[in-house]
Design goal:
By secondary structure, the protein is α/β, with parallel strands linked by helices. It has one domain: FAD/NAD(P)-binding domain, CATH 3.50.50.60. Helices cover 33% and strands 23% of the residues. The protein has twelve helices and 18 strands. The strands form three sheets. Strands 1, 2, 8, 9, 10, 11, 17 and 18 form an eight-stranded mixed sheet that branches. α2 (35-46) runs parallel beside α7 and α2 (35-46) packs parallel to α11 (369-384). It is globular, with a radius of gyration of 21 Å. Bound molecules: flavin-adenine dinucleotide. The site of flavin-adenine dinucleotide has 45 residues, from α2, β12, β16 and α11. This is Oxidoreductase.
Length: 427
Amino acid sequence: MKQIPYWLDTAPALPDRSGKDLPDEADVVVIGGGLTGLSTAYHTARKGARVVLVEKDKVGSGASGRNGSMCTQGLTISPGEARKRYGQERARELYDSFREAVDVVEEITRTEEIDCDFHRAGRLGVAFKPQHFESMRATQRDLADNFGHETQLLTRAELKSELGSDYYHGALLDPLSAALHVGKFVHGLAEAAERAGAQIHERNAATGLTRLPGGGFLVETLHGAIRAKQVMAATDAYTDKALPWFRKRLINVGSFIIVTEPLGEARAKALIPNGRLVVDSKNIGHYIRLTPDNRLAFGGRARFAPSDPASDVKSGGILKREMTEIFPQLAGVRIDYVWGGMVGFSWDRLPHAGEANGLYYSMGYCGHGVQMATYMGRAVAEMMDGRPEANPLRGLGFPKVPVPFYNGTPWFLPFGGAYYKAKDKLR
Ligand SMILES: Cc1cc2nc3c(=O)[nH]c(=O)nc-3n(C[C@H](O)[C@H](O)[C@H](O)COP(=O)(O)OP(=O)(O)OC[C@H]3O[C@@H](n4cnc5c(N)ncnc54)[C@H](O)[C@@H]3O)c2cc1C
C-alpha cells in the first residue's frame, strides 16, 4: 500500500524547483505553492508583474495535491443559511461566485491546454437519513427559485441507476460539478505560471515578514530575503508560525482517502454507473469517486485527528470498514493507496480573502478549495491590481476562532467530533 496521494503518484514527475537563487526584489511574492498560490502567481504574472512564489516543500504538497479531486458546485454553507446571514441578494452573489469558480478551472485547463481529465461529471449528494432527503427536496426548490440553479431530485428507487449501493435514501444531482485529475492540474498550473514569467522556488519557506517604511515588505526565507511591493499569503491549512494572524482564524481538520486496486471497467461501473462525484450527507461524511483507471477513491474525516503517516494508516482502516458497509461487494478488495491532508476551515464556514495589515490572503475553503482556490487566485490578482471590488468575498471579514488563547491548534475538535459521530449513529 502506497502512502502517497494517488493524484501525485499518477501525474508526470515534477521538475525540481529547489536550490535556485532568490532575486533581491519582486513586484509580488506569493507564499505557498498550492492552487491558491499558483493561480495567484499565474494571474499576476500574466498581468506583467515580476512574481516570485516560495513553497516550503514541493508544489502541490499541501492540500492541493492530496484532495478528492472534486470540483463541486455550491456554497460551503446551505443557501438558506447564506440568505439568513447576508440576505437573498448577497447570498445569490456568493452562490454565483462558487459556480463561476468551476468555470474558471475549466477555462484555465482549456487556455493552457492542461490535460487533466476535467469533465462535468455531476455531483450526487446522497441522503444518509430520510430527513436529509426531505431537506434536499427543499434545497432543490430553493436553488431553482432563488439561485437560478437546476438540480435533480432522485428517490431511493431512482438512485439505483446512479449508485451500486442501498445505503442511501435518495439524492440531489447537480449536473455542473466537475471531476478532474488534480495532480495533473496542479502541475499544469505551475508550468503555466512559469510560462507567464513567474519564478517558483521550492523547499524554501518564508520565515518572517517585515513591513518596509516606504511600502511593501521584506520577506525572509530559509534561503535569503526578498523585497516585494505586494505579498500574498496562500498557505491555508498549512499556515505556520511565519503567519500567526491567520492561524488564529483557521481550524485545520484532517481528512483521509483510500484508493482501491483497479477494479476493471465493469465492476467500477456497477458502483457508480455514470461516474458521478458522490458526497454523503453525514455530519462526518464521505466523498467517493472513480479514478480514471477504474479504482474507487473513498475519502472522509474518519477521525478527528491531524494527518501524519501513522494517523493516515489508522484512518485508512476506518475508511475501509465504512467503504464496505456502503459497498459490501468491495469486501476483500485490496487498498493500494492511503493518505491524508489538512483542510482549512473558518469559524463561519466560508472562505475568506482580502488584505490584512497590507498582506493579501485567501484561505479557509472548508473543503471546496479545488475550484475556489483557483478562482480566488484570479480575484486576488485583480485586487492587487487596484480592484478590491473583484473580491467576491469582500465584506465578510475573517473572524477569529472565539476560543481563549487559540493559536491554531484545535484541541477541542475530538469533543465536537464525538458529538457528531454519535448523531450519525442515529438513523
Ligand atoms: C484529504 C482532502 C480532501 C479534499 N477534497 C477536496 C475536494 O474533493 N474538492 C475540493 O474542492 N477541495 C477539497 N479539499 C480542500 C482543498 O484541497 C483545499 O481547499 C485547497 O487545496 C487549498 O489550496 P491552497 O493552495 O490554499 O492550500 P494548500 O494546497 O494547502 O497549499 C498551501 C501551501 O503553503 C505551503 N506553506 C505553508 N507555510 C509556508 C511558508 N511559511 N513558506 C512557504 N510555503 C508555505 C505549504 O507547504 C503548502 O504547499 C480537500 C482537502 C483534503 C486535505
